[in-house]
């Protein structure tokens, strides 16, 4: 029997709203495994705690309790809740990908440079031409017009920013990919392109954990699905 790529055990995270002296529960007592090559989907209403789980795995949120055991290629099994920051930076750059609903990049980076930077993490500077070819192919796949490539994405529409975010995450061909509402502001044609790449990555063995509101999009993609309500899996 294979070992889980990701094993979440009794994970809890809450947030303190200091201005009103109130604690808000993000997720509580979450436990599940994700097997290698599997695509697990999490559904639920907004505010049910889905994104909190993904941010704890990526560790932009620091969990309060529990463990997130990741079977890394570089270090073996590590607990993402307590792993050193240098180890987390390595895993994000070399093994993990994250598609957020929001584009968060350095200022004065062009659309082309954002995707090329991710490509170089996979191909290396010594394979610059190959990285450029893959960058241009990915930008075209997501219908980012060439006259936008050298612009700063702060001027882009919400859909263009999301497509750029997906392109930058998927060009890395990560070992483990987190998807946070990857179709949130996309039209149907763009959703088809996202689905094509997800199916391709799945065929190549990428393990994925995604959260969705679009149940129709999930149809036939996910191997298993969990539903969340009020911070817990039901």
From TrEMBL:
Subcellular location: Cell membrane
Residues in ABC transporter domain copies: 6-234
GO cellular component: plasma membrane
Chain coiled-coil ranges: none
Membrane topology: Peripheral membrane protein
UniProt cross-references to InterPro entries, sorted A to Z: AAA+_ATPase (IPR003593), ABC_transporter-like_ATP-bd (IPR003439), MetN_ABC_transporter-like (IPR050086), P-loop_NTPase (IPR027417)
Pfam families according to UniProt: ABC_tran (PF00005)
Principal cellular location given in the protein's record: membrane
Keyword terms of this UniProt record: ATP-binding, Cell membrane, Lyase, Membrane, Nucleotide-binding, Transport
Tagged with keyword Cell membrane: yes
PROSITE patterns per UniProt: ABC_TRANSPORTER_2 (PS50893)
SMART domains recorded: AAA (SM00382)
Lineage top rank: taxon: Bacteria
Keyword Transcription regulation: no
Molecular function as annotated in GO: ATP binding; ATP hydrolysis activity; lyase activity
Record family assignment: Belongs to the ABC transporter superfamily.
Record's protein name: Phosphonate C-P lyase system protein PhnL
Top-level taxonomy: Bacteria, Bacillati, Actinomycetota, Coriobacteriia, Eggerthellales
């Amino acid at each position: 029997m294979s070992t889980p790529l990701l094993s979440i055990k009794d994970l809890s995270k809450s947030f303190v709203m200091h201005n009103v002296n109130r604690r808000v529960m993000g997720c509580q007592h979450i436990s599940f495994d994700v097997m290698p090559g599997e695509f697990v989907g999490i559904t639920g209403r907004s505010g049910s705690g889905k994104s909190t789980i993904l941010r704890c795995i990526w560790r932009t949120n620091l969990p309060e309790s529990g463990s997130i055991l990741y079977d890394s290629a570089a270090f073996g099994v590590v607990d993402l809740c307590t792993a050193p920051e240098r180890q987390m930076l390595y895993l994000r750059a070399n093994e993990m990908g994250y598609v957020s609903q929001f584009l968060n990049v350095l200022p004065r980076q062009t659309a082309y440079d954002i995707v090329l930077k991710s490509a170089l993490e996979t191909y290396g500077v010594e394979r610059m031409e190959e990285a450029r070819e893959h960058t241009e192919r990915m930008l075209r796949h997501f219908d980012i017009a060439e006259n936008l490539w050298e612009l700063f994405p702060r001027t882009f529409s919400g859909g263009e920013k999301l497509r750029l975010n997906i392109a930058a995450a998927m060009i890395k061909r990560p070992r483990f990919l987190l998807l946070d509402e990857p179709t949130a502001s996309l039209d149907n044609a763009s959703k088809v392109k996202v689905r094509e790449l997800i199916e391709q990555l799945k065929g190549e063995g990428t393990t994925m954990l995604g959260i969705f509101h679009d149940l129709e999009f999930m149809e036939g993609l996910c191997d298993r699905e969990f539903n969340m309500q009020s911070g817990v899996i039901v």
